[in-house]
Design a protein that fits this description.
Length: 99
């Protein structure tokens, strides 16, 4: 069974593939040649993930799941949360390695 993970993050894809095993053929956005910049304008992480999954489902008509991540810091009253990617400003750099 084919299942789309709405991501281009190879580390996330590898991790989910490991969890799912051979039960599914997991496809990424890159596998489907989807380069759309999907807006993340929902007020919650869950809302952004759902929006992304529905957006991709409309394009490919396959089963899709998605995620959205953010930092929620108690001393900042839960911020930046859904705005984590924008919190650092335009000069931000993401560097993350999965081991």
């Amino acid at each position: 069974m084919q299942l789309v993970f709405a991501t281009n993050n190879p580390n996330k894809l590898r991790e989910i593939n490991h969890i799912l095993g051979d039960s599914f053929q997991l496809l990424s956005l890159r596998d489907l040649n989807i380069e759309d910049d999907i807006p993340e304008n929902e007020p919650t992480l869950e809302g952004n993930a759902l929006h992304k999954a529905r957006y991709i489902n409309r394009l490919v008509n396959l089963n899709v799941f998605a995620d959205d991540t953010g930092l929620e810091i108690d001393s900042l009253n839960g911020r930046p949360g859904v705005h984590s990617a924008r919190f650092a400003g335009e000069a931000k750099r993401f560097k993350c390695q999965y081991r």
